[in-house]
Amino acid sequence: MATEEEDSSAALPATDTKKAGDNGACIDRQPDTVVHQAGLSRTRSGPGAHSVTGIRVLKRNMKRNGSRSCVTRKNRFGSRERDWLKGDTQRGCVCLYGGTVDPQPPASGTQASSTPQTDLQLVLCSTSTTVEELCAQRNGQGLYVQLHGDLVRRLDHLERPLQMVYDYLTTMGYTDPVRVQHEAANSDLSCMIRFYSERPVNADHQERTMLKGVFNVRKGKTQLHKWAERQVILCGTCLIVASVKDSLAGKMHILPLVGGKVEEVKRRQHCLMFSSAGSREQTYFVNFDTLADYQRWHRQASKVVSQTVNLVDLSCYSLETVPEYLFYCQDLTHLNLRHNFMRLQGPGSLLNLPRFSQLKSLNISHNRLGVFPECVCEILTLTELNLSCNNMHTIPVQIGNLQSLQTLSLDGNNLSSLPEQLGDLSQLNSLGLSFNNFSQIPAVLERLYAVDKLAMAGNRVASLELSTLVRMIHLRNIDLRLNGLRWVKCETSDPVNHVTHLDLRDNCLDSLDLNPVCNLETLHCQRNRLGTLSLSGFSLRMLHASSNRLTTVNIYPVPNQLTHMDLSQNLLEYLPDWVCDCQKIEMLGVSQNLLSELPSRLLNSLSLRKLLAGNNHLQRVPDLLDHIPLEALDLQHNKLVGLPETLFCKALNLKYLNVSANALESIPPSSQSEESLSTLQELYLTGNNLNENCGALLVGHQNLRILHIAYNQLLSFPASKLSKLELLEELNVSGNKLKTIPSTVSSCKRLHTLIAHSNQITVFPEILNLPEIKLVDLSCNELTEIQLPDSLPATLQELDLTGNSSLTLEHKTLNLFSHISTLKLDQKSAPTPADSLGPSTLWKHGYSEMKGQRNKLCVSVLAVDCFGDSGEGCYGIFDGDRNEEVPRLLQCTMGDVLCEELQHSSTDSVYMCNTFLTSHRKLGMAGQKLGASALLCYIHREQSESGGCFSLTLANVGTCQAVLCRDGRPVQLSNVFSLESSTEEMERVKVNKAIITEDNKVSGVTYCSRLLGCSYLSPWVLPKPWVHTEPLCAKDEFLILGNRALFERVSYKEAVHTVQAVRDPCAAAKKLCSLAQSYGCKDNIGAVVVSLHVGEDSCTCEQPVLSDELRGPPPAPVPVSVTTCPSDPGNLSSSSGIGTELSSETSASEVGSEAGSTASDEHPSSGSASRPERRCSVHPAPTLCGIMVPGSAATGTHPGVFQRQPSSATFSSNQSDNGLDSDDEAPLEGVISNGSKLEVEVDIHCCAFQLRSGPTETPKELNLENHDSKMRRQNSVVVSATNGCLLAVCGRENGDLKKSPSTSSLFGKKLSNGSVVALEDSHNIIEVALEAPKKKSGYFTAPAQQDPEDQLIVPPGLEQEVREQLKGQSLLVSGISTPPKLTCGKDPLWDQTHPQPFASSFVPVPGLGTILQQEVYDTAL
Questions:
Q1: What's the CA gap between 926 and 1313, in Å, rounded?
Q2: Which of 959, 958, 965, 961 is nearest to 974 (CA)?
């Protein structure tokens, strides 16, 4: 058996002979044997002759059993091959999938299975290597490419695969050629772009395209005909039966199935009867051999017979040609070939489509045709033709032959003109020209009298001449969205009488005068720059003019037909008089203007049903004179001190009222008598000055379902009044001064949400008897105990009890809470020496997530107060909009990816950008169709000549945003990547010919132009982030991160003032989310608040030694140790935070399917010991979740013990094999490889362990070990005191678990949606987990009490050494010596890490030596 280096050496002579053009080198290697290709000296003639040499291909079996050795980077190439790759960045590796390999003979000599397995061939080549050359080397027939796991396309013989990969990565956002070369060789990239040596077979596509087989067939219903074996084909709309067995020669019997019948024949097994429709009914009986065949044919035939038209849908099948048997379906009228790769020439190509003599509808959009297929002009029966998104530049004159054509779609091409012959199509009534390159309205439209809609959105029409429309009297509807339109002119006095609908959204108009368009009914002109607007009111029904700069709107005459008008987000200081004269207006939106009053006549209108006037300067609401039909009234964010006394008496239809963020001191009564007729269902009173007296006034609203009365001055809530609100479903009384929730809340049988955080509640309310209760938030109160019923409702999903410092939960209570999916608890806090050295004085965070009215939480948070080796911080928020998978995967992996990228670069824009791009790749198959907005903040130390200071580097994609409070003012740090917010992004998407729907979504999917995931929308939606670095100073107070839903409702200014008033980060984050809900948000809301205490005035740190890099070593490869308080060994020294969650759902290490492990294979080496550095209170010794990280500070004699590497929780990938296996050659301890699933053997609820270790070693001993190049690892013990039981884990396992920011944060908090925050000072999470009921299944269950059977057997040879390690009895000193600087010998691109020897040091723990010598421990963890 030849070794790998011998293989590479043997292969190099063959590859080295290929020097001409340096087009490619191909290496062939199998895991255990060397296979020499036949015909090494064979010569070829023709195009590929110069590149044909003796080649060998590296093959790796890509099994679905999670084989870890299939494509590990170390065993891919030998040293000679890596040197060849590093010689030029234009060289690289192409991964070819889809071939077959012969099975390896088993060692036992038994007969092996002959089933071929998919293999992976790694082909070394250059960017100039063409498909033709690669096929000549491999004797292949062709190559295929698949993007984002979607369609498979055959490559042209002149295309260059490696250059395609490089172009794809460059489009994603990579700029460094070396990094591009490195990423191109990563097998994870196959989820985005993958090459096949053969066309992959999709059984499902084959079944839907055509079914074929030889079966027993009988014609007719009588017994006169005999059964005979015949070839039977089900293709399109027909059943085809051959006349001869096993042959298609001779006569073919065609049975049309549309409208016919397919029935089971009960007299025979697996037999179907096929019957055609009509008077000349024909019948065939087909007897199938197997049940599978019978079911497959029955399923497909049932779809055909149920159709009402002769339709064949072959869209999205990667077809190059039409199936030959489809041409037997001469009754075919509708053919859909959308999203394929149809050929223009050859058998089965588009050239053969005229053979369908009755074809009426043809869809060949999204086929990359490049030119208009002139053959379709010969199908004279066509009435509908769709040629969208084919990159066509011209339309042939033959288009005039299609005289029956009624609908023609040419959207998403590169057309700039139309032929005159198009005007001959007299029946054409629909013409789609959107997203082309037209600079003016084509003149040929004047002759198309049947066309009533001009669809030209997304073109380049800069000006609109109304005189042009005068000549096109047939046009009724004009769509000119997204054209960059700058003005609308009218040079003639002729009126435009025929236009009724005009869409001018998202243009550049400064003013608009449409008085000549006298019959205009609907106008859309949102998101322009309009200062003035003039319209004719004769026929106006709907006006949408939001997001402009309007100060006035002139409409004459009064629009008596107007029913809907939206003027929100403008500069209106008053409403025009004509608004009050509109007799039919039903909806009026004037929010976010400068209005100081509302006309009395408007509010007393007898037609107005919905009035939105929030975010203005209103000081009063006019009195109501009579009964009005008003149903919804929004007056939030004004200056109201009262409401009309007759509001609820006169507005009896009022169902929605929002007066949040005003100065109300009271609310009007529900009626003027004892009997109330109120129909109010939703009432929002948050952010006023209401007191407990308002409770009595709410009784009359007995239909109330939602009541938000948070952040007022309530001291109590009348118990007798609350019991009257029997239909109440959601109650929010947060931010008041309540000391109790009345017991009468139990009368609200429909209540499912109770939010009462940030009060002074001491007694747990009686709400757990409610049958529909789902969410209870009593955080930030003064609870001391909980009295629970014998059983809890099964509907309870979330209980938040954080921020109750005096609360103690008993064992029985935890048992009752065991079924709750999300339980948020505090931990007991105990001061330890490590706490005084932690970075909690620099920053502290709090966060909040709310589902709103959605049934799942699609927002995740990453928050690590102690990130890296210099007391740094890492915070992120991820919003998946409608999916929860991608946010979960990102919050579990992104911190580790950042650690890895910091090892490769110290430039902010580089490592942040690469963090996002790598996270995008690691999403795997989950990121093909799903995506998420993401924002990541990294607070780090900057090295400068004047000393160390902190900076904040932020990167984001999508709509997650960040704002910094500096000197009391908001500073926007992020960039919003949505089509409505960024004109540059809108133009980029348009240039790439994306179809933007009327709701401004890319392909109707997302508002965002940049996301992590959604790779199938590339290049329209990209993962490249916005990166910004902001130096921090003493004026910086706090940082706020939030998703789109938060900042749509809460402005930057209000968010900053809100946090300033609260100060506590946890309570502030909860208040932000509660405010957004009260302001009308129904979606998921996420907020993170990070309080900053960064100042340099008192800094006494020694001047750091500057290196060649901007910063010191990255945060990953550093040794860590833990110090603990001798008086309380059971409490873990931790960083600041907000609480712990116990979840009965799957742990965060199992949430994903396609996110691979980000565990690094590098093992940092030890170097020379450095001089201890003096630290100050502003820059304390860094820690990681309570683990001391002696990187740049500390004094004393106790260097670190464990080696820390960037690592992520691994995920199960039971859905598919996406090639995200770890690169480790040997199996990792604690990790199980089971098929394609990787599982970490750990329960996250039982990982808050403390580290104990033995005597340290002197720097001299370390240097001796480095000189001898020997690695000495001492046995260290992890100890956790839990109910008198000491659990021990080998130091390596614990180090692996805590080595990454993502997994270390999992030690502290687990949400039901996988959100992660840092561990906090609170009561021992292990104690809570152990007292909770144990699951019968899982990775392991921690023992609830000491088990004398659990033993750690110490070998006799190590007994003396273990005893010496456990002798330490001295007290812990305050300082910790600086460990030796770690170095890592690693090639930046292809070489593997070469770990240098290192030594472990141990910290003596007083009072534990005797205990540890007497106790024995189970090491099953």
A1: 16
A2: 961
